[in-house]
């Protein structure tokens, strides 16, 4: 199953790129993880709504029509590793690719949030967007190791 993190922002610190790449590289075979970066909308003149809308349009184009969209939201549903693993297992049976959307500095566009079939909260804290990429990658890797019965996860 293809899992894609679709994230607003294209200039992340090296540690973000390295962290995401490390976990993505560990996922092979039946579960694969990719990153799609969406350029931030222009925020000149204080037109934040237009910038967020532009990001949302690009994000939805990257998601495509078939993908099961997950919106990363502070107010979303919190999942344990076991719950995430079972959710991934169910999605694998559905056969749809997954798209995990991380918004820019002003959040996700309402159109992206409206299309989401799950709103997932990594924490009740607001995380930097780069760190959220790494946390999502690690959480997905950990959940897949649970499904595969590998020793990475120890409850």
CATH class: Alpha Beta
What are the secondary-structure elements, in order, as H or E? EHEHEHEHEH
Mean pLDDT rating:
94
> At the fourth CATH level, what is the homologous superfamily?
SPOUT methyltransferase, trefoil knot domain
Number of domains: 1
SS strand fraction: 15-25%
CATH fold-level label: Alpha/beta knot
CATH architecture: 3-Layer(aba) Sandwich
Structural class based on helices, strands and sheet pairing:
alpha/beta
Global Rg: 15 Å
Please describe what this structure looks like:
With 155 residues, the chain is α/β, with parallel strands linked by helices. The chain has a single domain, classed as SPOUT methyltransferase, trefoil knot domain (Alpha/beta knot). It has five helices and five strands. Strands 2-1-4-3-5 form a five-stranded parallel sheet. The longest helix is centred in the C-terminal third of the chain and has 20 residues, at 129-148. The model has no long low-confidence stretch (mean pLDDT 94).
């Amino acid at each position: 199953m293809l899992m894609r993190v679709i994230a607003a922002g294209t200039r992340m610190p090296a540690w973000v790129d390295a962290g995401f790449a490390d976990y993505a590289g560990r996922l092979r075979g039946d579960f694969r993880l990719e990153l799609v970066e969406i350029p931030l909308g222009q925020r000149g003149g204080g037109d934040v709504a237009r910038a967020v809308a532009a990001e949302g349009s690009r994000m939805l184009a990257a998601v495509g029509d078939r993908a099961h969209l997950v919106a990363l939201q502070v107010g979303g549903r919190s999942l344990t590793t076991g719950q995430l693993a079972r959710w991934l297992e169910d999605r694998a049976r559905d056969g749809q690719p997954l798209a995990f959307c991380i918004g820019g500095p002003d959040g996700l566009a309402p159109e992206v949030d409206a299309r989401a079939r799950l709103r997932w909260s990594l924490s009740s804290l607001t995380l930097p967007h780069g760190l959220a990429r790494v946390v999502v990658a690690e959480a997905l890797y950990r959940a897949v190791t649970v499904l595969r019965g590998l020793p990475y996860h120890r409850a």
